């Protein structure tokens, strides 16, 4: 009988990730009740560990827009890292282990607010991706932001956020998706 070796999934650095703790969280923000300004942080998660890094392997986002008569603005979102402080306010969401019996995640803060989170002392990096919808459209735009071959790393204390740009987070816009990561 031939002997076979177990198959392990590895990341781009050759680390065996099949046995590492993995987690997911919803990427969500309720439909905007009224037009909001640009540069609002509407969703955020932060790695609050002092020692573990979060390796984000999947980020899928869908931005839905509804037709609003007479609107000329184009709405959109950018995805960026942040550090120094944690956005506050809004509604808390949970980071969920991908396996039963797994330890709690180093990401202890996931939240959203359609009117914008409070970002006192938060330091934002430049955006690494964007997602937009045109004015006057009743449409959904979606994107898979991360190529698993080139994951986004959140060092201890860093976070990931979704911020509005252009015309802002517009009436009838909604954000849905999922973010997944493992911790090392």
Question: How are the elements arranged and paired?
Answer:
Elements lengths: L21 E8 L11 E7 L6 E12 L9 E9 L7 E3 L2 E2 L9 E6 L10 E2 L4 E5 L5 E6 L7 E3 L4 E8 L7 E10 L1
Antiparallel strand pairs: 1-6, 1-13, 2-7, 2-12, 3-10, 3-11, 3-13, 4-8, 4-9, 4-12, 5-7
Task: Tag the structure with descriptive keywords.
184 residues; mainly beta; 7-stranded antiparallel β-sheet; 6-stranded antiparallel β-sheet; disordered N terminus
Fold and architecture overview:
The chain has 184 residues and is mostly beta strands. The protein has one domain. 0% of the residues lie in helices and 44% in strands. It is built from no helices and 13 strands. Strands 2, 4, 5, 7, 8, 9 and 12 form a seven-stranded antiparallel beta sheet that branches. The protein is globular.
